[in-house]
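INFO batch 0412 | record 1 of 1 | parsing
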Amino acid sequence: MAMNKNTVLAWATTIMIIVGLALMALGAFRYDEIAGYGFGAVGIGFFAIAWVFNALKGRV
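INFO prediction complete | emitting tokens
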């Protein structure tokens, strides 16, 4: 299977969304102390990077 730049960016976006959701779930359900806020913030950061990867499709 040949993967061009757009396919790689699509896979990266999908993986980053999954990891971001997992981090936010960890922050919401696993950690009740202040560490939960950190996990949630990092999860939102993963969403922001995935958004940038999605915006780069077709331009790189």
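INFO post-check: The radius of gyration is 14 Å.
INFO record closed
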